[in-house]
Amino acid sequence: MEEDFERQLYFFTLTRSRHRIPNLLSILLRKRGALTLNNGSRLKFAPETKRGVTQLFLFSLKYGAEIQNRSGYWGFDPIRNQVLTPSGLRFDVRGFEHGIFAETFLYDIHFCDDLKGRTVVQAGGFVGDTALHYAEQGATVYSFEPGRSSYELASRNLELNPTLSPKVVMRNFAIGRDGYVDFPQTDVVTGGGSVFDAGSPKTAQVRSISIASILKEFHIEDPYLLDLDIKGKEFDVIEDRDLGKFHRIRIEYTPDVTPNSGGRELLLERLREYGFGSPRIFKHNSGSYDLHRHGTIECSRSET
Q1: How deeply is 70 buried, as exposed, middle or buried, from its count of CB atoms within 10 A (0-12, 13-18, 19+)?
Q2: Mind listing the pLDDT tens digit for each residue in 103-115?
Q3: Is 3.40.50.720 the CATH number for 119-301?
């Protein structure tokens, strides 16, 4: 994973940065230092923040996001080690992932036209980026993240946004069937964790909760949006008929990680059974994959 990241950084820096590559690589080999963006902004790093800062560096190079530390722009506070979004949300830089933050805050793949006063159930929660994005739009959010490292940073990010944190309920749960699962755990925060990851050296038993149990346990009477990014477990969740209580559903699907899953067509069939129509199927990032293998389904329930 780290080798892939360094390879990406090397490629994008080679094509877009004013740094000469030997100089950049010498900086990245150090435990401390600073990376300078094309606009002159300096991103200082220490051993514990190096990966997050280099992810922020790549975020700026790859997507053109300017880091200027002024209103309306992305910012970086090297004293507090926090990333600031243009709208003012704050995130611990240690949990910054350039691709995931681009999906949420640049491509706006979680867009909803009106979330004020509505309830969102969201999983996996990663570092709280999507939950805070929904809360910023006025929603009450129930977010679930089974990876312990990500969950701890999500909790920290809620603390960094005290005006929005009361609108977010965050739990270190997996979403699927009721019970417990052994979930792979990593020290490096990643948005790609899945219960189906084979050969993980470290796992932890975490609670797994169904959608029906979420609605009952948290006393959710009129759920508006269900947003799932659970890396294969969507094929368990789709059999829960309580999905029909939501007005809108968004599912990132990955059938290849689940043997005999039934694929994208099973998800669409079940959604039709629950009263959802006019599905929109789209790529949520610029990755190289066919939409039968990976993508996002979004649809609304036909109201009567």
Answers
A1: exposed
A2: 999 999 999 989 9
A3: no
